[in-house]
């Protein structure tokens, strides 16, 4: 699983070495792998996905902490009061008297959730001190130790359901992060080929201008010798002007593409780069069954579909439990003591126990409970339908994309051969034109065929690589290394 990480690091260090070696030439040649790696390492887009992954990581850690024992201490240190307060007399009457007291309380508690039943159990110890300035006395009261529980009955158990959904949410987040990195790779590949198309047009325009100027010099000699018509000479001169115009337009487009690519991959705008056409590629066949198996195993849609089905059942259960009888059972047992000194609080303590059942029964709700349950049932059926439909569409998308990718191999080989033929045809036509064997019209036709074949070849290479990267997104599987794609968020510590 770590092959992808090792491979990426190797490419990154190789790229750094390449940059150092080419600094003296002031031009850095970038391959498609270089651009993709730079985008993964330092693009602004990747920072967003890393931070989002960190957010999901700490959400998971926070959720896990809910199921561990919680130890805490609370109290009032101090609570000083000087006021007139109603005091209940032995005969039940009230008398207002001035009090001047310093009260201090402290409670130490340990709580634990039992998620299977939604029970809260706890153990605690408390101490209460009252210093009365009017009586010039100090009293102590405390519960050295007591335990208790709170048990909802016939109620919706959030803890139980959250233990079923939260692990799936976390799994989704991890797979979404890998998918996000692959989408950055695809986006960088698209910008690479966008730049490459413009770079190809610029190179063609520069080459056409050079050839057109050579043709014009030859035409000027022929004109002096009277071996060329004024019409043909004007056409040749016009071809030079058109070539200059094309080169200017290509230069502007190249600057725009250069800025966009460097901005996306986080490269200094002052760096001079030149893209290398990715001609070295291993054309291979992808088994649709393998792609589908890896998709279901690796993509976030797997746990997402499962989570949505669980949430539909959860919401139905919640609607049923929250609209009927609601009861809560509470109980506690321990010791307590009132004393004049702190040490006496913990001597010869007395029992302290409590058991209480709280009920809430709806009598008349005008069909509110029944409609809430029916609504939850309807939503559950809709979720079942949506999940099944989306799953079929998703699987079909994978199969179709694999079939299209496998067809691109023949298209790429055909475009490559057409490019060679058109290039040779243009060189032959250029030589014939310079020898006076064909007209400028025939040369322009050959030039158009050459440019179209070159652009078609670049477009075929682009289609191949974009389809390949999109398949990696759909499956999160590296078909070259035959391994699952894994990325570790560098902003998260190993612990």
From TrEMBL:
Leader sequence residues: none
Cellular localization per UniProt: Cell outer membrane
Keywords: Cell outer membrane, Membrane, Transmembrane, Transmembrane beta strand, Transport
Transmembrane portions of the chain: none
A Pfam family annotated for this UniProt entry: OEP
InterPro entries in the record: OMP_efflux, TolC-like
Principal location: membrane
Presence of keyword DNA repair: no
Keyword Membrane attached: yes
SUPFAM superfamilies, alphabetized: Outer membrane efflux proteins (OEP) (SSF56954)
Family per record: Belongs to the outer membrane factor (OMF) (TC 1.B.17) family.
Name under which the protein is recorded: TolC family protein
Originating species: Agaribacillus aureus
């Amino acid at each position: 699983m770590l092959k992808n990480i090792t491979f990426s690091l190797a490419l990154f260090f190789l790229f750094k070495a390449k940059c150092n070696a080419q600094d003296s030439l002031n031009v850095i040649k970038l391959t498609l792998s270089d651009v993709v790696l730079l985008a993964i390492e330092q693009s602004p887009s990747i920072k967003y996905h890393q931070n989002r992954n960190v957010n999901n990581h700490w959400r998971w850690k926070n959720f896990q902490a809910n199921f561990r024992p919680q130890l805490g201490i609370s109290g009032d240190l101090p609570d000083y009061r000087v006021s007139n307060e109603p005091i209940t007399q032995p005969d039940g009457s009230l008398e207002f008297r001035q009090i001047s007291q310093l009260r201090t309380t402290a409670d130490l508690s340990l709580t634990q959730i039992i998620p299977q039943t939604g029970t809260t159990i706890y153990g605690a110890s408390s101490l209460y001190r009252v210093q009365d300035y009017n009586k010039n006395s100090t009293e102590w009261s405390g519960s050295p130790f007591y335990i208790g529980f709170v048990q909802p009955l016939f109620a919706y158990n959030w803890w139980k359901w959250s233990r079923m959904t939260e692990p799936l949410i976390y799994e989704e987040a991890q797979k979404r992060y890998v998918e996000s990195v692959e989408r950055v790779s695809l986006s960088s590949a698209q910008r690479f080929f966008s730049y490459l198309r413009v770079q190809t047009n610029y190179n063609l325009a520069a080459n056409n201008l050079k050839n057109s100027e050579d043709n014009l010099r030859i035409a000027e000699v022929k004109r002096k010798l009277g071996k060329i018509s004024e019409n043909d000479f004007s056409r040749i001169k016009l071809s030079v002007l058109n070539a200059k115009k094309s080169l200017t337009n290509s230069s502007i487009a190249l600057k725009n593409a250069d800025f966009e690519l460097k901005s996306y991959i986080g490269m200094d705008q002052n760096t001079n780069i030149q893209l290398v056409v990715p001609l070295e590629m291993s054309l291979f066949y992808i088994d649709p069954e393998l792609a589908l198996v890896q998709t279901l195993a690796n993509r976030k849609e797997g746990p997402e579909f499962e989570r949505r089905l669980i949430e539909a059942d959860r919401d139905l259960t919640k609607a049923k439990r929250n609209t009927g009888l609601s009861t809560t059972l509470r109980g506690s047992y321990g010791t307590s003591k009132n004393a004049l000194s702190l040490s006496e609080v913990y001597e010869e303590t007395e029992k302290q126990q409590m058991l209480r059942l709280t009920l809430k029964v709806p009598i008349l709700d005008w069909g509110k409970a029944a409609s809430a349950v029916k609504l939850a049932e309807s939503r559950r059926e809709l979720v079942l339908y949506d999940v099944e439909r989306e799953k079929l569409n998703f699987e079909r998308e994978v199969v179709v994309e694999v079939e299209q990718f496998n067809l691109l191999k023949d298209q790429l080989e055909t475009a490559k051969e057409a490019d060679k033929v058109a290039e040779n045809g243009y060189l032959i036509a250029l030589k014939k034109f310079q020898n006076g064997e064909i007209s400028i019209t025939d040369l322009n036709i050959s030039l158009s065929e050459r440019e179209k074949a070159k652009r078609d070849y670049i477009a075929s290479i682009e289609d191949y690589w974009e389809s390949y990267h999109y398949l990696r997104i759909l499956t999160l599987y590296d078909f070259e290394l035959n391994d699952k794609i894994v990325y570790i968020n560098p902003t998260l510590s190993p612990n």
